[in-house]
């Protein structure tokens, strides 16, 4: 089978690997669609993502959907041909968490994640024609949700988790700073959760257009230095740019809440943080997701349309070109999709 494999910084190849066979409790998938994430780009460009450093070739990809092609022994409740996506996280060990973290499996200290070099050996991703997955990680797609949209359940789950961290959004005004694919999905998740008004800000007009299509009531281009809206009770920072934190904190109302969903660097960076104290802002981190992938699928079933964030589509053999487009701000890309195999009728 063909797989999208990063061998080192700037070294991406389409490798031939043996077709996998499902074992006990496992499911064989024939993959159809995959979405390119920022971590895929950083592994390709730098050979690392955060503190995870590439030591061996790694199959990329964790935003995927396909169809069941085979069932290992002991698998029940699933059927060959069924369209599915996958929860890309697997807890290593007994899975126990302290009571204060009950249900927050995303904070378990040892997690294997598809397409991650955090462990050695690495955890291969799902940008392949086929992939064997534990049955527990399979999530059937609801009626009416095709595999292209199903591949976006993972990033939508990230957005759903961020919104959950903010509490009750019903009837409130929300600010989303940064409208890349995750920021635009936060816009949609906030509207889905009942936010009355969502204001989206970015420096790219193309990204703001996507945010409007995903439900933003107002958008603001801050590329020319325009000030962010002031005194917003609930703010989501989705750009991950440390230099933006000062203005985002200033935009947050006194006593308000700021949810940090954009990944911040693991190295020292200058930021103006004084307002965090003087305005008594609650600053909350948001990391991946627990089981919100189920809520994401339900939301798509109920009409949440993720199609506006899809900007480009490429075949598996064009993975290098797809990554280059996804990494280039001048391309105007949002979510770049890879067609990983032959498509069955959705």
UniProtKB/TrEMBL annotation:
Keyword Metal-binding applies: yes
Domain Enoyl reductase (ER): 8-338
UniProt keyword NADP present: no
Cofactor list: Zn(2+)
Annotated signal peptide: none
Domain of life, source organism: Bacteria
PROSITE patterns: ADH_ZINC (PS00059)
Cross-referenced InterPro entries: ADH-like_C (IPR013149), ADH-like_N (IPR013154), ADH_Zn_CS (IPR002328), ER (IPR020843)
The entry's keywords: Metal-binding, Oxidoreductase, Zinc
Family named by the database record: Belongs to the zinc-containing alcohol dehydrogenase family.
PANTHER family linked: SORBITOL DEHYDROGENASE
Identification of the protein by name: L-idonate 5-dehydrogenase
């Amino acid at each position: 089978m063909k797989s999208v494999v990063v061998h080192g910084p700037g070294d991406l190849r389409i490798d031939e690997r043996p077709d996998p066979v499902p074992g006990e409790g496992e499911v064989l998938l024939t993959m159809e669609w995959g979405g390119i994430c920022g971590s895929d780009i950083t592994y390709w460009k730098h050979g690392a993502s955060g503190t995870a450093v590439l030591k061996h070739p790694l199959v990329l990809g964790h935003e995927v959907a396909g169809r069941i092609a085979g069932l290992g022994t002991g698998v029940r409740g699933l059927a060959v041909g069924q369209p599915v996506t996958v929860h890309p996280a697997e807890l290593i060990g007994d899975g126990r968490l302290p009571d204060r973290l009950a249900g927050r499996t995303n904070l378990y200290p040892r997690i294997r994640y598809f397409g991650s070099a955090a462990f050695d050996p690495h955890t291969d991703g799902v940008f392949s024609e086929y992939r064997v997955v534990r049955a527990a990680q399979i999530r059937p797609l609801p009626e009416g949700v095709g595999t292209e949209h199903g591949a976006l359940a993972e990033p939508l789950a990230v957005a759903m988790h961020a919104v959950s961290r903010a509490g009750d959004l019903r009837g409130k005004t929300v600010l989303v700073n940064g409208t890349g694919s995750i920021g635009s999905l936060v816009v949609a998740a906030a509207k889905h959760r009942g936010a009355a008004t969502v204001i989206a800000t970015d420096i790219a007009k193309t990204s703001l257009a996507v945010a409007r299509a995903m439900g933003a009531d107002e958008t603001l281009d801050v590329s020319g230095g325009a000030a962010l809206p002031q005194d917003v009770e609930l703010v989501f920072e989705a750009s991950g740019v440390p230099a933006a934190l000062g203005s985002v904190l200033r935009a947050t109302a006194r006593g308000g809440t700021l949810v940090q969903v954009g990944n911040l660097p693991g190295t020292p960076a200058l930021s103006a943080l004084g307002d965090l104290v003087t305005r008594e802002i609650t600053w909350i981190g948001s990391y991946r997701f627990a089981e919100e992938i189920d809520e994401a699928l339900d939301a798509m079933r109920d009409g949440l349309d993720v199609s506006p964030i899809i900007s480009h589509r490429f075949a598996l053999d064009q993975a290098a070109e797809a990554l280059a487009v996804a990494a280039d701000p001048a391309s105007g890309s949002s979510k770049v999709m890879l067609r990983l195999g032959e498509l069955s009728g959705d």
